[in-house]
What does this fold into?
Amino acid sequence: MEVLKIATAGSVDDGKSTLIGRLLYDTKSLTSDKLEAIERSSKQKGYDYLDFSLATDGLVAEREQGITIDVAHIYFSTATKSYIIADTPGHVEYTRNMVTGASTSQAAIILIDARHGVIEQTYRHFFINNLLRIKDVIVAINKMDLVDFSEDRYNEIKADFQKLVDKSDYEDQNITFIPVSALKGDNVVTKSNAMQWFKGQTLLEHLEKLDTIDIYNRGRVRFPVQYVIRPKTEEYHDFRGYAGKVYGGEIKVGDEVIVLPSETKSRVKEIYFYDKRFETAARRSSCTITLEDNVNVSRGDMIVKVDELPKVQKQFTATISWMDVKNLTAGSKYVLQHGVNKVLAKVSTINHKIETDFSGIKSDITSLGMNDIASVSFQLNKPIFFDSFKEHRTNGAFILIDPQTNNTAGAGFIE
Amino acid sequence: MTEKLHINALENEAIYIFREVAAQFEKPVLLFSGGKDSITLVRLAQKAFFPAKIPFPLMHIDTGHNFPETIEFRDRLVEELGVELIVRNVQDSIDQGKVKEESGRYSSRNMLQTTTLLDAIEEFKFDACIGGARRDEEKARAKERIFSVRDDFGQWDEKNQRPELFDMLNGQIELGQNVRVFPISNWTELDVWTYIERENLEIPSIYFAHKRETFLRDGLIWTASEHVYRDEDEEVEERWVRFRTVGDMSCTAAVDSYATTISQVVAEIRDSSISERGARIDDKRSEAAMEKRKQQGYF
It folds into this structure.
């Protein structure tokens, strides 16, 4: 079984939670006690339909206001795939949550209310999915029951959305349009009778056929050292194992490698996964490797293949998604966490702000507020070993930590 | 075979999280209840640090109302692992007058654990507490981060959580704060059972079907025990049951079952139409029961 992580985004009332509830209900993923709770609560509120949004809106404040305010994770599975939905809120002040949810997803569902069509929020959602390089975007045009299941309305919205796609610089992205009614169940799991004109797949059919391999993790191998294992027992007296997760490709016993920043060359001697030894460590596996030579390696160092060097620099420019109440200004200092490596970073310049509605850039900016997205240049106290985000989705991203509050204040994507 | 791929991905993620805890914190502790989730955590920790031993102790907050089978199991496992086990008792918190024993029909020591836990965190100056909570268990837990910061009072501020991006975990905290860590956040109940089966892990006997003295209340099967309040008209009968979660006797209901092996249990979970916490009496108190407990410092 494969795992597919999907980020969902939508505006406050366009029925995102209802869509997820519908997916759970129609795939028989809701257990009887959860279903009873939904029935009970729907009846209490006097609804004549089942309020599926109750299946996902977890926090008390959300139930009070009837909106989703944080990232919630929802799990369900079919015979072919195991799904994780990162349900993120849609309103403007929560851009940071959308970036967060999208950062670990391979696909995204953007919801549009068929009555309102493409609105400013839609721009923002699409923009963030592009920024995070989400390969598969599904545009679910919801509440079709409220526009008489009109094909014309569907085509109109599709054409409006296409104008956004034309402005995007991300050419390999797959975009799929599906007209749905989450409330009534049309084209979510089962084909709609009311929309016979639609010849495409239902939402679930589409998801079931998606390739789950995250293409941005293919390519050059990156092994950031997380932890050095030195058991100092009789049996493993001289054991020095480097524990970490393999990104980008595979590591094999005998591979010629180079350790950064010391630039020491060596070969992979052994690959351990628990108490067994393997010839190969697969992409995204958490393993422990040993090297032929006795080199000095510590946490934050990176092991790469000799002919696949990343950039090693103390200055770079990145697109920043700002997430903190305290503004980012030129000259401010942060702890920059790149994978498991931490360095000190100083903002050299804020180059320009990027409007999330595709209207372009705004120069002469002196500070960034929460939910702003901008191009920022940094100066580090020590070099880091990176690739551009477009080439390497894991080795091109970092977070900024405010040294005073310890909060994760922003995310960066290296240009 | 294909199912294993899915479990492998979850296992790799959990091992990564364990290593981040060991690297980023000075005094981590693994909270161990003897239940299936914490047993899974122990195996994952072994895998993360092999051939070295698990580099932190286990801690059990004992309500004194645990199933005796769980305690026997706990002591045996710790001896095999060769790690330190810290036990702190809710009874001591009651004796010290810090918490008051509940009384009446739904009385339970489950809520009282929080005080004992927070005291122990302070006593040992733990800066990271690893727990087996999963996001699929309950709605409030679905919003939980993998590294979840708690203030000096052990409280969870669910509206002001740190964003978690990609694989990057930010464990920077101030003195007095601590982080709750959830390595199996993304696992479902079925994933845990599939893993226990694959790894051939030993689990307490109460997870398998057995004959037990029980009584029925509110459609749930309760254990008849001196620790559980029972009305005179609530009739005790012997049934074939097993437990899906191992909490306190007073807050964990049994389910009808004849599953006596792991594979039978896995098959039963797969076909089950009731969620795991459907048999948790503590969650039925109100729709927001878990969220309220979490804000106060509960796991």
Residues 2-24 of chain B form the longest helix (23 residues). Chain B touches chain A through 54 residues (CB under 8 Å). The beta strands of chain B are 28-31, 58-62, 85-89, 128-130, 147-150, 178-181, 210-217, 220-223, 237-243, 254-256. The radius of gyration of chain B is 19 Å.
